[in-house]
Amino acid sequence: MDITAGKKRPAEELEGEQPPVKRSAQYIMREPSIFNIKPVDDVIKYIADFIGKHCHLQNVEIEAKFGLFIDKKTYKRMNINALTETIIPQELVRNYRFESNMALEQHRHFNKMLNEMVTKTRAKDYKGERIQYKHTNEIDRFYAIPNSNSKWRVTIDQQGKIVPNGIIEKERIADLNIHSPNQPLDFRISVNVEHPRPKPTCDFMYERVKDRISYQHGGISFDLTQVKSTTSNEPDLRHELELEMSDSTLLAVERMKYNKKEQSQYTQMIEVFVNNIRLLGRSALKQ
According to a count of CB atoms within 10 Å of the terminal CB, is the N or C end of the chain lower? Predict the structure, then answer.
């Protein structure tokens, strides 16, 4: 039996004691691998190689659009039993169509989220890169050029004036189709060339009215657009979200350095592009 049980200890015994010290877990900085390097994500490497084949082209446009791959037979979203983000093989793509349209609620969700980010980056104490914001209302008019298979696009502003670089013929170069089974939206990365053209002399076939909000950040334009078409074979109002590389010339310069095994920002630029696609896709509303 403890004979001290129930008895108070003298004050002089307690004065010299210190409270127990809580030891925090030791933080260990690990190297990224035994080789002390971080491997490039396999999908990003494939995307980088895909874009690298075309980014040197003059007047090239590199963009990613959100949407869904729809089975042409079932009219439902693609299901190829993929467990993670997957690049769709070309031999499978023919069985699906890509719909870049999204629900109005989805569009509003992205608009609200991006507007909140603009407000956040405008704070005086914000240390990162600020998001630039622009709202435009324009009309695209499409012309079938006589004696050719060409279709030209003329973009005018609300005053009816042609916008800078507003007359083009868009040539489709290549698409990379990516299915994201764990996210509400898939995406397509497209490479196009926008050939400058003179003002057409014929009448236009149809037009599309575009209400667009563009957010600029990290060398990328995030374009949230409502499109109203005058053609009968398209929905009255489409809602789109696309990301476009703002400076393809810089991208081509960095790709050239990469090919020469010089210090280059090319892979990082592609990583930033894909990171934005992935994070926006993961933040989309589940339908």
Answer: N
- Cite the DSSP H helix spans in the chain: 11-15, 42-52, 90-93, 104-121, 248-259, 266-282
The span from the CA of 26 to the CA of 285, in Å, is 39
How would residue 235 be classed by pLDDT, with cut points 50, 70 and 90?
low
> What Cα–Cα distance (Å) separates residue 174 from each residue in 16, 90, 201?
78, 11, 30
With a CB cutoff of 8 Å and minimum separation 6, the contacts of 282 are: 183
Residue with tokens 């980014």, as numbered in its chain: 55
Note the pTM of the prediction, 2 decimals: 0.87
Beta-carbon contacts of 227 under 8 Å, excluding residues fewer than 6 positions away, are: 208, 209, 210, 211, 237, 238, 239, 240
Rounded to an integer, what distance in angstroms lies between the CA atom of residue 183 and that of residue 75? 19
Of 136, 151, 267, nearest to 202 by C-alpha is 151
5-25 burial code (b ≥16 CB/10 A, e <16): eeeeeeeeeeeeeeeeeeeee
**Quick check: helix, strand or coil at residue 23?**
coil
